[in-house]
Request: fold
Amino acid sequence: MALSTGARSNGGSATVAQRLQKELMDIMTRPTSGVTAFPDDENMTKWTATIEGPDGTPYAGLTFKLSMEFAANYPYTAPTVLFRTPIYHPNVDFSGRICLDILKDKWSAIYNINSVLLSLQSLLGEPNNSSPLNGQAAELWEKDMDEFKRYVLTRHKTPEELDAEI
Reply:
């Protein structure tokens, strides 16, 4: 099955599709524990990913669904990544937008889907509280971890619960 880029055909789109196809093959042949990513249906530029909360963090045992969208000039531009699972985190707002340097000004073409997902998984256990999108979460992370965990569990939905809402 050939996957389309979902964009108008031009040389750049073909290159993006080739890069994403290679990344998909890498993910399938060398899976990384705790992260998954696959294109949505026939559109190679829109992906659904999951990350598992790391052990020893308030997110341990939880799975988070994300959307990834790739521009026509990927890998020279960072993908747009959003949490689809509601998450209570200092660096994620209530719309799922993420404050992470490698998705903004520190992006480099050497990064790939797997490195982005692993960075997000790491961010779950090591938030950047000096640059929060959710100030309340940053404050609770520092002052009251039990209350923080309560908020995490209150907001979280399983992938099955999310799918049922569609």
